[in-house]
Amino acid sequence: MIDLVSPTRIVIVYVILGLLWIYFSDTILLYIFSDPSVDYLTHAQHYKGAAFVLLTGVVLRWVLKQYWYRLRATETAYSRMFETSPQPMWIFDRRNYQFPEVNDAALYAYGYSREEFLNLTIFDIRPTEDIQRVMTSHVTTKEGYHKSGTWRHVKRTVPSCT
User: Fold this and answer.
1) Which of 32, 51, 125, 150 could serve as a FRET partner for 96 with CA atoms 20 to 30 Å apart?
2) Coil/strand/helix, residue 111
3) Tens digits of per-residue pLDDT, 54-91?
4) Backbone φ and ψ of 9, nearest 5°
């Protein structure tokens, strides 16, 4: 799951920083233009600024909450599509070639349990003579869709019962 900062926390930080800005900027202006007749004006500015920050904080929280709900729904849909696909699929880490995730179709096709498969690397499901090709492909592959050609696979060997 994607680790995101909560909308509420973002709004709280926004409101605190906004209120501090209003208070200190108005106080600094009052100090610079030290005319006592504008003291009531500074207090009015504080209230007006605070109301603006609080109101925009509420709107910001609503917008962020909607965004997070859509993001979570999309993430759930993609996870479900990955997990339930009849096509064997896995994800491997490009730094260490290990599998952090695999779907049930791949487990069935390769003959491993989930725990066993997640302890493998991409090299374990390729013939030894194809390992250099895997490494070369990994280095030259860019983000996004690309056609990588045909690959050979090595499945778990089941011991014979003789």
Assistant:
1) 150
2) coil
3) 888 888 888 888 888 989 999 999 999 999 999 999 99
4) -65, -40
Residue 53 CA neighbour count, 13 Å, CB half: 19
- The two counts, helices (H) then strands (E), for the chain are 5, 2
Residue 87's identity, in one-letter code, is Q
Q: Note every long-range contact of 153-162, with CB atoms under 8 Å and residues 24 or more positions apart, other chains counting.
A: 153/110, 153/125, 153/126, 154/124, 154/125, 154/126, 154/127, 155/109, 155/110, 155/111, 155/125, 156/110, 156/111, 156/112, 156/116, 158/111
Single-letter amino acid, residue 92:
F
Question: What one-letter code names the amino acid at 126?
Answer: R
